[in-house]
Amino acid sequence: MVDGLDNVVFLVEDQPTDSEAVLGIYEGVALTERGDYGYGELPDRIVLYRQPLLEQSESLEHLIHEIHVTLVHEIAHYYGIDDQQLHELGWG
Questions:
Q1: H and E: helices and strands count for the chain
Q2: Of 57, 14, 13, 8, nearest to 31 (Cα)?
Q3: pLDDT tens digit sequence for 79-90
């Protein structure tokens, strides 16, 4: 469990729906951009893409590492951390 992570669903899909080569995606409104957020809001989504993760991984250990890095990356977007900041932190 991640402290402060609220109203987020984690999903696994086979492939991204567009042609973009990504391992995962955060779909929602980052905490830093939310105004009135309350009861009845649909959950934000973090989706991992199974096929691209498998294709990128040469072993089970590498797959576990890629899933970990992808989850950290997408959860960071939930907290309002952008790709540039992630890169500066060594996660991009």
A1: 3, 3
A2: 8
A3: 999 888 888 888
Contacts with 23 (C-beta within 8 Å, 6 or more apart), sequence order: 48, 49, 52, 53, 56, 66, 70
* Cβ–Cβ < 8 Å for 15, 51: yes
The dihedral sign for the CA sequence 72, 73, 77, 81: positive
Residue pointed to by tokens 């060594």: 90
Quote the pTM value.
0.86
Please return the burial class of 8, using the count of CB atoms within 10 Å of its CB with bins 0-12, 13-18 and 19+: middle
Q: Strand 24-27 relative to strand 8-13: parallel, antiparallel, unpaired?
A: unpaired
